[in-house]
Amino acid sequence: MDTRLGFIGLGIMGAPMAWRLMDARYTLAVHSRTKSKASRLIARGARFLDTPAAVAAESNVVFICVTDTRDVEAVVRGDDGIAASARRGLIVVDHSTISPTVTRQLADELAKQGAHFIDAPVSGGDVGARNGTLSIMAGGDPTAFEKVEPILRILGNTITYCGPSGTGQLTKLVNQILVSVTNLAVCEALTFAKQNGLNLEKTIAALSAGAAGSWQLANLGPRMIAGDFRPGFTISLQQKDLKLILQSACESNISLPAASLAHQLFTAAQAAGHGKDGTQALFTVVEKLASLH
Amino acid sequence: MDTRLGFIGLGIMGAPMAWRLMDARYTLAVHSRTKSKASRLIARGARFLDTPAAVAAESNVVFICVTDTRDVEAVVRGDDGIAASARRGLIVVDHSTISPTVTRQLADELAKQGAHFIDAPVSGGDVGARNGTLSIMAGGDPTAFEKVEPILRILGNTITYCGPSGTGQLTKLVNQILVSVTNLAVCEALTFAKQNGLNLEKTIAALSAGAAGSWQLANLGPRMIAGDFRPGFTISLQQKDLKLILQSACESNISLPAASLAHQLFTAAQAAGHGKDGTQALFTVVEKLASLH
Q1: How close B193 comes to chain A (CA, Å)?
Q2: Predicted TM-score of the model (pTM)
Q3: How close, in Å, is residue A33 to chain B by CA atoms?
Q4: HEC sequence for A175-241
Q5: Pick the catalytic residue: B35, B37, B112, B172?
Q6: CA-nearest residue of chain B to A214?
Q7: Of A132, A139, A123, A129, nearest to A157 (Cα)?
Q8: Residue B262: its chain A contacts at CB < 8 A?
Q9: pLDDT tens digits for A60-112?
Q10: Nearest chain A Cα distance for residue B291, angstroms
């Protein structure tokens, strides 16, 4: 097909993803609440349009990459939203991490207009977005997914079709349970080690290759030790995702005591001013709690 | 030196470790509370002696591999214990996972007789013991450690000298905090996934290579899904180690909320009859808790 792409949301993730699509010689219509975020893409030939509806009207496939559930709702359902110009065959791919429940509602609504809504949240951070090494977890109509899969392979190197609408979001939330509780494991372990006077570099080296090993230990452990809290992924965003997890779990009567504990300790980290720091700054809270005496 | 080795404690870990020392052509004096556990080693030429004191009297280096703090205390301090025949130059290497505090006491006591006590707990399970691929975390006198290090390399492939007496045990406890809380992360993540109807094999495959990845996810996750609770490491032993962690943390006024939570949930697993199952059986408790409705 003559594939015309749209991209809505040009933040820290969206901008480099749109850039990669232009690398692959796609023509792009773009929209962002803050037009200045589109300037590099515009300079390269992308057309800036004033509304999501206008982007959808000109595109076969529209990508969304915004922050929260209500942002996606505004882009799709709002005045001049995608739904205002959606038509048979349009495929909307949402790379935001949002509510699985709202995702299913949006997919149902667009389906009435003959359009498809694919949830496709990503992990891998801005580095992964720049390098095309994101993991993408997709849910929705399988035929629509197959149509966009070749484009997703420009953006990521691990593309998983998870099942019906919402399962991409649910899989991303599973990822975030693992990430946040494993992070907490590393914080407590290094706190215990530090309070007992162990050499922390040596401890991480001794334990990383065995049953205690994790991405979080190998990647965030050294930054915790060094007090390097520059964000790969911020605590505020981690909290946004933990809220989605606990809200989704609550809707299904699922008890998640460890994820809840992580959420509470991240709240303390936000209260201490670490919201814009990387998730490894959770270490400061666990360490303080462990040594209030 | 003409190195005569002794080995005390011939259980699931000790027996294959002693076997490897015989593979390396060391002559071995052995002791075990249950003599039958020594039969294969005796058939191969090891000398069985009736007391730890007798083993120590005939050896330059004595290895201990028993279960708990009080077992090591009995082997060292008890009637006919190692201390009864310890002499200048004797090196005792304790592979058990026990209290760091008691470890330092035993090291101090033996030091008065001119003997060294090296704490050298291991991880890697019975498979690692058989294959010589254990991780060994050692603490104690550095000169004594250097003397035994070549022998430790027969038993393990990651040998870390952690520092003074007790630091080997502390490092092992750091390992066990990581292992138990990361295990809990996997249990909650897979419970959330299962309750939401996700394909669990696909979920693990999609997430293992990224920031959510861990040894626990890759190795225990598939067994949780399959309901395969055969032990690599039993819940009873994990609980023994979590008690050591929380006791040691309490002695130092260190608060460890996530490790405490893991301990409580493992207690529920023991109550449900899973004490002799592998630690992956924690999944059954987290899953039941999440779906009591």
Answers
A1: 6
A2: 0.95
A3: 30
A4: HHHHHHHHHHHHHHHHHHHHHCCCCHHHHHHHHCCCCCCEHHHHHHHHHHHHCCCCCCCEHHHHHHH
A5: B172
A6: B214
A7: A132
A8: 258
A9: 999 999 999 999 999 999 999 999 999 999 999 999 999 999 999 999 999 99
A10: 6
Using CB atoms within 10 Å of the CB of residue B67, give its burial: 0 to 12 exposed, 13 to 18 middle, 19+ buried. middle
- B1 vs chain A: nearest CA distance in angstroms? 29
Per the annotation, the verdict on B35 as an active-site residue is: no
Identify the structural domains of chain A with CATH numbers, from first to last: 5-163 (3.40.50.720), 171-289 (1.10.1040.10)
**Closest Cα to residue A67, out of A184, A239, A232?**
A239
CA angle B262, B99, B121 (to 5 degrees): 85
- Decide if B121 contacts B87 (C-beta within 8 A): no
Q: Taking CB atoms and an 8 Å limit, are B209 and A265 in contact across chains?
A: no
Distances (CA, A) of A11 to A58, A89, A92, A95: 22, 27, 18, 12
Whether residues B173 and A181 touch (CB distance < 8 A) is answered with no
pLDDT digits (tens, 9 = 90+) for B171-229: 999 999 999 999 999 999 999 999 999 999 999 999 999 999 999 999 999 999 999 99
Q: Determine the Cα–Cα distance for residues A157 and A130; give it in Å rounded to an integer.
A: 12
The residue type found at A250 is: C
**Are B245 and B259 a contacting pair, CB within 8 Å?**
yes
Place of tokens 């750091």: B174
* Mean pLDDT to the nearest integer, A211-228: 97
Sequential DSSP letters for chain A: ----EEEE--STTHHHHHHHHHHTT--EEEE-SSGGGGHHHHHTTPEE-SSHHHHHHT-SEEEE--SSHHHHHHHHHSTT-GGGT--TT-EEEE-S---HHHHHHHHHHHHTTT-EEEE--EESHHHHHHHT-EEEEEES-HHHHHHHHHHHHHHEEEEEEEESTTHHHHHHHHHHHHHHHHHHHHHHHHHHHHHTT--HHHHHHHHTTSTT-BHHHHHHHHHHHHT----SSBHHHHHHHHHHHHHHHHHTT---HHHHHHHHHHHHHHHTT-TTSBGGGHHHHHHHHHT--
Q: What is the pLDDT of residues B28-79, one digit of tens each?
A: 999 999 999 999 999 999 999 999 999 999 999 999 999 999 999 999 999 9
In A179-238, the residues whose Cβ lies within 8 Å of chain B are: 179-182, 184-186, 188-193, 195-199, 202-203, 205-207, 209-217, 219, 233
- % of chain B exceeding 70 in pLDDT: 99
Smallest Cβ distance to A160: which of B202, B211, B217? Answer: B202
Catalytic residue among A37, A172, A194, A276: A172
**Do the Cβ atoms of A100 and B171 come within 8 Å?**
no
